[in-house]
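User: I need a structural model of AB hydrolase-1 domain-containing protein from Mikania micrantha for a docking pre-check later this week. Nothing fancy, just the predicted structure tokens so I can convert them on my end. Input:
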Amino acid sequence: MSPSCATVPHRVRTEWRTSNKFTPAIKVHPYRNRCGLSRRDFATKGIVAAGASVMPSTLVSQPAQGLERLPFKNDGYNFWTWRGHKIHYVVEGQGFPIVLIHGFGASAFHWRYNIPELAKKYKVYAVDLLGFGWSEKALVDYDALVWRDQVADFLKEIVKEPTILVGNSLGGFTALVAAEAMPQQVVGIALLNSAGQFGSSDDVTTEAEESTVQKFILKPLKEIFQRVVLGFLFWQAKQPARVESVLKSVYKNTSNVDDYLIQSITKPADDPNAGEVYYRLMSRFMSNQKKYTLDSVLSKLSCPLLLVWGDLDPWVGPTKAIRIKEFYPNTTVVNLQAGHCPHDEVPEAVNKALVDWLSTLPSTYDASQTL
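Assistant: Understood. Predicted structure tokens for AB hydrolase-1 domain-containing protein:
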């Protein structure tokens, strides 16, 4: 990892609301994070994880009280068959379409406070990625391109018109690669503490040829060891107490870490194939993140980008948002005093940031021409 990717103490301008005015204040954030979520973070901390201008930072510490919340349904909402697999999604509202993509280990229900509010002005879709939530726990080789293709086909077959993609964590990187695949349909992207790493000149691109000993002895033994260890970690990670503990470590304001949220994560983990999916994700996908880098994807985009960043995220700090903006100038940044999942921790602030940004995009109010 390059030194520029590490989070170092830096000065951040934060605006404190007093009455009807903002009072600027300078805070120092001494967080030390990496630009991307590591394989170890996901494995050891649970199944929860995923024109240049700067908008004012906002300090929000109040819980989501009084906001309408998407009703939790044990059997889910709507289902779509994609390549023979059952895919779950929620759709609410009318108007210009927005597609919400959850993070690692989460589901469409993680947008519980965002869907009802955004649906007042837009047609909101929230889709469960294959292997997560109420979507099928398919036994496939998981790769960034699997979710890219799923989202791209969802846009073509279900949404069928120009769209804004919004993604948190793993869902953020999925939104980026899907936008790259569908440049004519994706007219804007919003990332909330997105996963993904910038490439490094030190990355090794060549692989040594496997010897007979490596291929037939060492590799199988390594896989057996991984299965034992990851099997135990999965069992531990899906325990409600463990899920609650992990959530509280990434929500700086833990008011919204409740039974609804915990159940939306633990219920899908009871699927018979969930353990095998977890193994495939941890042993293959998470160990091969360098294959697709943020710079390689961003260099192929042309649509407006919004970064809504929880600066107190212990996994993906604000330095990553700064680097994305430096690399991709057509970016608007909103910094929030929140953790890894600002859309659920401080939903009022995130909803406002999204609506304010969407109102500046001509495509969101001139969508009469469909594809």
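Before docking, keep this in mind: Residues 3-201+217-365 form a domain with the Rossmann fold fold (CATH 3.40.50.1820).
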